[in-house]
Each structure stands twice: as C-alpha cells, then as structure tokens.
C-alpha cells in the first residue's frame, strides 16, 4: 500500500546491483511513494546490466559513479539536479565492498592496501557524498541522507573482518556530518543497522548462512527482510521523521536488544545431552 510519502521529492539511489539488493527494493518503494530519482552504481557493476530493468520500471536515469571518486560524485549531483529539474531531497548510500572478505583474509592477516580500499568504498564514500553535496549545495533544506550499516560496528563478529571497522567509521561519519549539515542546512544524516540479508554483499561473507540463522533465532520478530528495510528507509526520507538525525537505527527484529532466546538455549541444551 502506498501513502504518497515522497510525493514531489527528488532523490539519488546508489547500490542497486540486482533484484536482491536493498537499494533495488528502496527504488521500487520510492517510485510507489511518488518520488522521482536517479540511480547510480560503480561503472564496473553496470556491466551486469540488471540495473537497466530497474531504471525502466522506475522511469529513472542511470548515472554511473564510483563512490570513491569526488569527480564522479560531482558529476552525479550535477546531472541528477539537471535531470530531475531541481535540488535533491534524499540520498541513499547503499554501498559496501571488502577485497579482504572477497579473498577470504581473516582479521589477523588483512592485506593493508585492500583494508584501505574497504574503508574508502564502504565508509569514506559517505563522507565524500556529503562533502560534494554540501559544496555544490545540492540538497534541499530538511533533506535526508541514509546509509546502511551492520551491528558488527558495535560488537565483534570475527567473519566480518575489516567491514566491521568500515561500518564503525560509516556510523561515525553519519553522526559527525549529521551535526555539520544539520547546523548548516537542516539536512539529516542517519544509518540503518540492518539484519543479515541475502544479497550479493551479504552472502559473500564467510559463514553467512549460519549467522543468518543465528540472528533469525535470536530476534523475537525474526530477521528483517530487504523489503522491510526499504520501507524503513522511505520513512526516513519522508517528512514524518524530520527531527531524526545523527542516529544509528537498528532494523533487526529486536536482535540488538536480545541476550539469548529460548530457541537458541534449547539448541545448546540438545547438544549438551
Ligand atoms: N546484506 C546484508 O546482510 C547487510 C546487512 C547490513 C547492512 N548491509 C549493507 O547494505 C548495503 C547494501 O548492500 P546489499 O546487501 O544490498 O548488497 P549489494 O551487493 O546488492 O549492494 C552493494 C552495492 O555496493 C556497490 N558498490 C561497490 N563498490 C562501489 C563503488 N566503488 N562505488 C559505487 N558503488 C559500489 C555494488 O555495486 C553494489 O551495488 C551495504 O552497505 C551493506 O554493507 C547489508
């Protein structure tokens, strides 16, 4: 059901790789809620071509940008403003990548060049997106910027390796740039800390299915789906959350506040018998 929450709003949505991507679901919902927007992804990710289908169904233009390149981001904002016919009201940062995870390096044996790459792609890119937006005065007053995080920013999940550090930095950038942009232009910046979700980035993490099942059994509501995450993102883009900024908001079915669940205790008891 649509509520017209984003009627008349213009946005930029990054990170839609295929139909499993969280950003893909956000784009479909943003369209349903009346927004117009551009889609963006790293030029290399476009080769798969799936984003063209999304662009067609959302009547959205695609503007390639490597989120680590300030030059690409300048082009992204300028072209988006031109295409959409005015300044931007919302931006989705849905970007993450770790070469160390891809190559199976554990936390004690990280390749440092790749570590820097993970931080640049997955965290500093949010700073760059905000910096370029501010420099070009590309976002309207009371605009909203949302990034996606994971609870490994607060707790240790060994398999998440350098992405855990990247998420901690991402959340810190949301807080610090949120203060700056809030003071300057009333622009809001938040991160959503999402449950494990079966996407290309998610499933690439070692032992994904085990911690997906663990989180599902820990959470009273079960794991939050990508669709539900998209709905939450839409509320943050809408005027219903005008005073929410500099927050890391858990969207995890209650996982982050649970110590242990009966289901998990039973599983352990069965093993002990
Ligand atoms: N899937 C999960 O379990 C989960 C849980 C919590 C948070 N998140 C976060 O959600 C966000 C979206 O990931 P997803 O799960 O939808 O997976 P996904 O693989 O569909 O999306 C990740 C996107 O990042 C893009 N990207 C990588 N390098 C880039 C670059 N240099 N410039 C621009 N874009 C680049 C990829 O092309 C891809 O579209 C990520 O920040 C991820 O860490 C995912």
Automatic annotation (TrEMBL):
Its EC number is 1.3.1.9. It is an enzyme of class 1 (oxidoreductase). It catalyses: a 2,3-saturated acyl-[ACP] + NAD(+) = a (2E)-enoyl-[ACP] + NADH + H(+). It comes from the Bacteria. One of its GO terms (biological process) is fatty acid biosynthetic process. InterPro entries: Enoyl-ACP_Rdtase_NADH, NAD(P)-bd_dom_sf, SDR_fam. Keywords: Fatty acid biosynthesis, Fatty acid metabolism, Lipid biosynthesis, Lipid metabolism, NAD, Oxidoreductase. Pathway: Lipid metabolism; fatty acid biosynthesis. NAD(+) binds at residues 15, 21-22, 95, 167. The keyword Transferase does not apply. The active site is at residues 150, 160. GO terms for molecular function: enoyl-[acyl-carrier-protein] reductase (NADH) activity. It holds the Pfam family adh_short_C2. Belongs to the short-chain dehydrogenases/reductases (SDR) family. FabI subfamily. This is Enoyl-[acyl-carrier-protein] reductase [NADH]. The lineage of its organism: Bacteria, Pseudomonadati, Bacteroidota, Cytophagia, Cytophagales.
């Amino acid at each position: 059901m649509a509520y017209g929450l984003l009627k008349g709003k213009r946005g930029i949505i990054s990170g839609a790789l295929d139909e499993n991507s969280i950003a893909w679901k956000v784009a479909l919902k943003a369209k349903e809620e009346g927004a117009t927007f551009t889609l963006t992804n790293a030029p290399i990710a476009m080769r798969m071509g799936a984003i063209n289908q999304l662009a067609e169904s959302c009547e959205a233009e695609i503007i390639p940008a490597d989120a680590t390149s300030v030059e690409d981001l300048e082009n992204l904002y300028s072209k988006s403003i031109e295409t959409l016919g005015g300044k931007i009201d919302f931006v989705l940062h849905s970007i993450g990548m770790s070469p160390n995870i891809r190559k199976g390096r554990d936390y004690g044996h990280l390749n440092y060049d790749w570590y820097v790459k993970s931080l640049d792609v997955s965290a500093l890119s949010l700073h760059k997106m905000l910096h370029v937006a501010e420099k070009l005065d590309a976002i309207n007053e009371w605009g909203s910027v949302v990034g996606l995080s994971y609870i490994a920013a607060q707790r240790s999940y060994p398999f998440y390796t350098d992405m855990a550090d990247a998420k901690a930095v991402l959340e810190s950038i949301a807080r610090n740039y949120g203060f700056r942009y809030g003071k300057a232009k009333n622009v809001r910046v938040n991160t959503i800390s999402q449950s494990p979700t079966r996407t290309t980035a998610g499933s690439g993490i070692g032992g994904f299915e085990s911690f997906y099942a663990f989180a599902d059994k820990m959470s009273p509501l079960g794991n939050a789906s990508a669709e539900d995450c998209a709905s939450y993102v839409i509320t943050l883009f809408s005027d219903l959350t005008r005073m929410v900024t500099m927050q890391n908001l858990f969207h995890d079915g209650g996982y982050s506040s649970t110590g242990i669940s009966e289901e998990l205790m039973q599983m352990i008891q069965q093993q002990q018998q």
